[in-house]
Design goal:
single chain, mainly alpha, 2 helices, 0% strand
């Protein structure tokens, strides 16, 4: 359960950075989507880990 919360906190932080990168891209499209794509992909991965961890913790009991 604690690991799931840790993944959730990291995913929320990643989502905040993703939104900041998206805002930067919207203001200057010449920057490109590389940084946004990497951060967004990492955030999605953390969300998957979070959900898996919560499901695993729920099934142990």
């Amino acid at each position: 359960m604690v690991v799931g919360v840790a993944f959730l906190c990291l995913a929320v932080a990643g989502a905040a950075v993703s939104f900041a990168e998206w805002r930067d891209y919207r203001q200057a499209p010449s920057v490109g989507l590389t940084a946004f794509g990497l951060v967004a992909g990492f955030t999605v991965l953390l969300i998957i880990f979070c959900l898996y961890s919560f499901a695993k913790a729920r099934s142990v009991r």
